[in-house]
Every structure is written in C-alpha cells, then in structure tokens.
Design goal:
Blueprint (H helix, E strand, L loop, with lengths): L1 H37 L4 H9 L1 H13 L6 E5 L13 H9 L5 E3 L15 E5 L7 E4 L26
Parallel strand pairs: 1-2, 1-3
Antiparallel strand pairs: 3-4
Helix pairs in contact: 2-3
C-alpha cells in the first residue's frame, strides 16, 4: 500500500514538473524579450511603453499643476469621495506612486470630514489601470470654523470667506 502511495506521489510530482518547467521557461523568455526591447531607453519612454502615452502625459500635467509641498485628494472613478479602504484598486496605487513626492489623501467612505481635508484644492480621480487620471480643482474657501489654516495654504493669496 505504501509503495503505491509513494509511486502516486512521485508520478504527481513528475506531472507537475512536466507542466511547470515549460511554462516557467516561456514566461522567462517573454520577460527577457521585453527587457531587451526597452534596454537603453530613458525612463520616460519605458513608462510610455508600459502605461501608454496618454497616461504619461496626464501624470506629467498633474505633476506640473500640483506643487510638491501641497497635498491632493485621491479618489477612484465611479465612486468619487467613496473609496473602500480594503479595495484599493491598482489605478489608485499607481497614480499615487507616480505623483510622489506629493502627499495623497485617499478619500474613504465613512470618515468624517476633517479640517485639513476640506482645505485641499486638488482632486485626482484614478480612472482605471493604464488609463489617464483626471485632475479637478476644488474651490478654496476659508477654513471651517474652529480649524486652523492648512500649512500649505500660507503661500497662496488670501482666501475668500466661506458662505
């Protein structure tokens, strides 16, 4: 009985290797071929090949619009202001990474509005992985009552009082 069990395990292991080794070699070949095609290209050209020129252009436009010392609100398309904490899609993560060193404030469902989040003037909407993000400018008003002005607003012109 034990010999049959050992032979069965050995046969399953051999079958697994017969399938896994060619698949692994194929994946390695495809990745090396992609690496050879992009060897020597500047980082911007590689990003354009991976994400597409429209995505790279949109990210560069957003990087020029948002100062490095100013945060922005980040939301998922289709659910503005309601992004789930457990289900952050890849689009939000890539946009957040591409806009570094700017700080992102991810909008999550159920969080009460805080003093500083209401004083952020930029909203970036991540549409889908590989699709260009959208930049929206929010109207700036004076801080809510009882809230100090946000530190990034000191360099801006005076704010109009909130209605």
């Amino acid at each position: 009985m034990r010999t049959w069990l050992a032979r069965g395990a050995l046969a399953l292991m051999a079958l697994y290797l017969l399938i896994a080794i060619p698949v692994g070699l194929r994946n390695t070949f495809l990745r090396l071929r992609a690496a050879v095609r992009t060897a020597g290209l500047p980082p911007g050209a590689v990003r354009a090949r991976v994400f597409g020129p429209a995505y790279v252009a949109a990210v560069e436009q957003i990087r020029r619009a948002i100062p490095e010392d100013e945060p922005y609100l980040l939301s998922e398309a289709g659910k503005p202001y309601l992004a789930s904490e457990l289900d952050q899609p890849a689009a939000m993560l890539w946009v957040r990474f591409d806009l570094l060193p700017r700080r992102a404030m991810v909008l999550r469902q159920g969080l009460p509005p805080d003093c500083w989040r209401q004083q952020v003037r930029w909203l970036v909407v991540a549409t889908a992985p590989g699709r260009p993000p959208v930049l929206l400018q929010r109207p700036l008003t004076a801080p809510p009552p009882g809230c100090p002005p946000a530190p990034w607003l000191r360099s801006l012109k005076p704010l109009r009082p909130s209605p």
